[in-house]
TrEMBL record:
InterPro entries named among the record's database cross-references: Folylpolyglutamate_synth, Folylpolyglutamate_synth_CS, Mur-like_cat_sf, Mur_ligase_C_dom_sf, Mur_ligase_cen
Any Gene Ontology CC annotation: cytoplasm
Key word Flavoprotein present: no
Gene name per UniProt: LOC105040732
Keywords, alphabetical: ATP-binding, Ligase, Magnesium, Metal-binding, Nucleotide-binding
GO molecular function list: ATP binding; dihydrofolate synthase activity; metal ion binding; tetrahydrofolylpolyglutamate synthase activity
Protein name: Dihydrofolate synthetase
Record family assignment: Belongs to the folylpolyglutamate synthase family.
Gene3D superfamilies: Mur ligase, C-terminal domain (3.90.190.20), Mur-like, catalytic domain (3.40.1190.10)
Domain Mur ligase central: from-to ranges: 184-337
SUPFAM superfamilies found in the cross-reference section: MurD-like peptide ligases, catalytic domain (SSF53623), MurD-like peptide ligases, peptide-binding domain (SSF53244)
Keyword rRNA processing set for record: no
Length: 643
């Protein structure tokens, strides 16, 4: 008789009968959800014969309530005493059993504490057949969750050890030397530029690999290859992992456990591209450039380096100044390889990049060259699909000769910032053409026009809005979380809804510049409603900006900009949504003050609340609800839509 495998990391003697019974009856995917939850409850992996101390007994009433035990996680997590396992695990079994039957991508219940929600969503949304791979990766150091150490992205003693990455790749047979590559760094615009360029090359018929980060719904999004650019199939990723797992195990041991999640996944991407025999790979740097794990590509394989923009994101990790960030990102420039720069840059920042290029004897192409003209002419929506019509004209006669005319280009990526990314991608394609890559003007146009990215100024279709219970509501989602990206989003709102009423739903990580972000959005079309909420952020609750903190910041921004506002407190705590609607309607007969309110709940519920508040303030005026502040906001909305 085959014995039932127990949840990983838990000793069977410590499991109560309800959990074991539940575990035996659920599917493999449900087992993963259950194991994810159970593995977080460290206190219940203790000796079952021990007794709680008096300090723990003061909280013991919480053990009788499933909700209570989840709410007391902070006290339990740091408690050093041994506790009675059986009663706690029985309660936990009652708490989690309903979640074992959630469908893939179902909105996580508010019963689950926020520090657990991201892990549970991951367990629910990822492909079941990737379970072993995801469990393996989960054990590695993940700086996307924990935060990047100070100076880690600089080319200094504090920087990441690229030697570790090179040794791993050498054990894998140096797969990164088996294909040509374009390496893209920059504060903003890397992913969009990489996708534009990948699609241009695919239109020409090339087999293209593309490596980007982060992802929204599944880690498979980070690796795309083939002629359609779809995410790597789960089965392919699983097979590649098992093919090299022995080498990974050996490498982790030899490196004393120092290999990171990003390093291992990057190595897997390179190995997969080598196996697939791609013609070219478009590689997005993760952090900075000089010490990023992707910066192992030599000049013999590098067809072009691209630097899209320089901004103050990850400031501490990249040296503390715009100048140090520019130096870190210019570390991807290799000897004799052309460099395409986006911008516009401040003169002294561009000077840093050009100095590095001069040192490397690398020709420079700037998308802001006087010989390049781009114009956003107008925008529109057809059958719920948004677009903008642009002109791009390029005629450069400097280091490299580039020439193309693209009138009336129909871009599905919205905003002037995306037009700049399209120009940068076009310059890079022309640069490749100058190296005898066959790329026609028609392929450049077709590649630009087919490009779409989830969560970049994305309007939900009516079917998508209906899927989350908001039929008839115009919803715009955007992962903006910096001052520059907030400006880009404000421009899109102004362009697509020049006369419409706006409600903003904002949730952010704690380490962002909240005030600069708020001021940029408030400098655009003035919103009728600003609803501040919270979303699970990679790294846990310590990285979540509380709704009340964000509300204080937005009030300060409104005061600084002279915007009349009304602080309407917190929905569901002493006031119902109807109370807020009533206050909103009664605030003014002519020009009601901007309503600023907190809401604790899922992003979907927050969008619904913002929509209702907005409708209570306007008559038949066109309106849009904008959800922004983090890619985690976008991920939460898309998970609800797609599943």
């Amino acid at each position: 008789m085959r014995r039932e495998k127990k949840p990983a990391g838990l000793i069977s003697s410590q499991l109560s009968k309800p959990i074991l019974d539940s575990y035996k009856t659920v599917s493999a995917a449900q087992k993963r959800i259950m194991t994810t939850l159970l593995s977080c409850y460290k206190p219940f992996r203790l000796n079952p014969i021990c007794h709680p101390s008096p300090s723990f007994r003061s909280h013991s009433h919480h053990l009788h309530s499933p909700r209570g035990i989840l709410e007391r996680e902070d006290e339990l997590e740091g408690h050093q005493d041994k506790v009675r396992v059986k009663r706690g695990m029985q309660c936990l079994a009652r708490s989690i059993f309903p979640f074992c039957h959630l469908r893939n991508g179902t909105e996580v219940s508010r019963l689950i504490p926020r520090f657990l929600q991201s892990r549970l969503r991951s367990a629910m949304s990822e492909d079941p057949e990737l379970g072993d791979f995801l469990d393996y990766m989960e054990k590695l150091k993940n700086y996307e969750r924990s935060g990047v150490p100070i100076g880690a992205g600089t080319d200094s003693d504090d920087g990441f050890d690229l030697g570790r990455m090179r040794r791993l790749l050498q054990r894998l047979g140096n797969p990164h030397t088996q294909f040509k590559a374009v390496h893209i760094a920059g504060t903003k615009g890397k992913g969009s530029t990489a996708t534009f360029l990948s699609n241009i090359l695919r239109e020409e018929g090339y087999l293209v690999g593309c490596y980007t980060s982060p992802h929204l719904l599944t880690i498979r999004e980070r690796i795309s290859f083939g002629r359609n650019g779809d995410p790597v199939p789960a089965e392919v990723l699983k097979n590649v992992f098992h093919q090299v797992k022995g080498i990974l195990d050996q490498s982790i041991e030899l490196e004393n456990g120092a290999l990171t999640h990003f390093e291992v996944f990057t190595a897997l991407a390179f190995f997969l591209f080598s196996q697939a025999k791609v013609d070219i790979a478009i590689i997005e740097a993760g952090l900075g450039g000089a010490r990023d794990a992707t910066n192992v590509i030599c000049n013999t394989e590098l067809s072009a380096a691209v630097i899209t923009s320089i901004g103050e994101e990850h400031l501490a990790a990249l040296g503390g100044s715009l100048e140090s960030i520019a130096m870190a990102k210019s570390g991807i420039i290799k000897h004799g390889c052309p460099v395409v720069i986006g911008g516009p840059f401040e003169p002294h920042i561009e000077h840093i990049i050009r100095d590095r290029a001069s040192l490397m004897k690398s020709p420079v192409i700037s998308s802001c060259d006087p010989g390049i003209r781009s114009v956003l002419k107008f925008s529109g929506r057809v059958n719920g699909n948004s677009y903008q019509i642009c002109d791009i004209f390029i005629k450069v006669q400097k280091d490299l000769q580039l020439s193309i005319d693209l009138p009336n280009l129909k871009l599905l990526m919205l905003g002037n910032h995306q037009l700049r990314n399209a120009v940068t991608a076009t310059c890079t394609a022309l640069c490749l053409h100058g190296q005898e890559w066959a790329i026609s003007d028609e392929s450049i146009r077709a590649g630009l026009e087919r490009t779409q990215l989830l969560g970049r100024s994305q309007f939900l279709t009516q079917d998508e809005a209906s899927a989350i219970g908001l039929s008839g509501t115009s919803i715009l989602i955007d992962g903006a979380h910096t001052e520059a990206s907030a400006k880009g989003l404000a421009d899109v709102i102004r362009m697509m809804h020049p006369e419409g009423a706006v409600a903003l739903v904002v949730a952010m990580a704690s380490d962002k510049d909240h005030l600069a972000f708020a001021k940029q959005l408030l400098s655009g079309p003035r919103p009728e409603v600003v609803l501040l909420t919270e979303v699970t952020i990679a790294g846990g609750k310590s990285r979540i900006a509380s709704a009340s903190t964000l509300k204080d910041v937005w009030i300060r921004a409104a005061l600084d900009l002279g915007i009349d506002f009304m602080d309407s407190g917190l929905i569901d705590h002493g006031k119902t949504l109807e109370d807020h609607k009533s206050e909103s309607r009664g605030s003014s007969d002519h020009s009601p003050a901007m309503l600023v309110v907190c809401h604790i709940g899922s992003v979907g519920d927050s969008i619904k609340a913002a929509s209702q508040l907005l409708q209570s303030r306007i008559d038949d005026k066109p309106s849009v609800v904008v959800a922004t502040g983090s890619l985690h906001v976008v991920s939460s909305v898309l998970a609800a839509v797609h599943h």
